[in-house]
Amino acid sequence: xxxxxxxxxxxxxxxxxxxxxxTAAEVYEEVRRNxxxxxxxxxxxxxxxxxxxxxLLRLSFPEAPDRFDPNVYEHYHAxxxxxxxxxxTDGTVGSGLxxxxxxAVEACTGVRVESRVMIxxxxxxxxxxxxxxxx
Amino acid sequence: xxxxxxxxxxxxxxxxxxxxxxTAAEVYEEVRRNxxxxxxxxxxxxxxxxxxxxxLLRLSFPEAPDRFDPNVYEHYHAxxxxxxxxxxTDGTVGSGLxxxxxxAVEACTGVRVESRVMIxxxxxxxxxxxxxxxx
DNA sequence: TTAAATAATAGTAATCATTACTATTATTAA
DNA sequence: TTAATAATAGTAATGATTACTATTATTTAA
Lengths: 135, 135
Known about the structure:
The structure is a homodimer.
Chain A lengths: L6 H12 L5 H9 L7 H13 L4 E3 L7 E3 L7 E4 L5 E3 L2 H19 L2 E12 L1 H6 L5
Parallel strand pairs in A: 3-5
Antiparallel strand pairs in A: 1-2, 3-4
Helix pairs in contact in A: 1-2, 1-3, 2-3
Chain A binds a DNA duplex through α3.
């Protein structure tokens, strides 16, 4: 087995798996518990490298810091406006519907769609039951 | 007719109509031609106020400054990866398809979708003909 | 194995978009 | 016509992210 060059990179990857769609700052806080001398720059650099190499996804939300996701299959995200949690979609959204939207966009803009960013916002199941609609 | 309080705000609105999905900095440059002493802060403040009042849309793109759009009807955007231009969709995208996606997202995440950001990227018609597929 | 070459690090400075602040000027109202 | 209010220009501050730099760790090859 080849020697790993950087322990930091591996520990960052492990922290990412433990956290839920964290920001770089959240990864930094988590990694610091094992590696107190790590710098935020190292976290950013490794996260960016891993994103380039396809080992993780960098998610961009409006008016908010980027988040990182170790699930690299094609999926989308829905965030809860009450609790802030971020939920992953599964393959059912991508199958068919996204292609249909792409074609509709192409029909009216002329742009041959190659990729897309889709972010959904609303109220998650837990917050829905915490705040009943009658209230 | 009531006096307008701020000439700046009106001139910003006019610049917006003249430009194509501009950033705040681009609005600033345009407005400066008529109002050389205007400050970037005034442009930002008025654009933000107008967005709050529903007079325009603030568009957020990943890794890029926000852009502003005087078209306030519900529509989406496709940007060309070659020339950078941004194209508006018309009502055909929103009708039906978006509701279907919302329902699919709700089915697999539990989030009752209230709003969404969708940004499409690809090659526009002009750039497609400029760079024929055979090449 | 060890010395030169290479890669990664910690720490800090810089950047960029945006907002906040402040003293001043313009507008409105009494 | 003056006091109260709103908006401005200019500048400073903020927050996320990247860039830089001197140092340390790893690899390579003699």
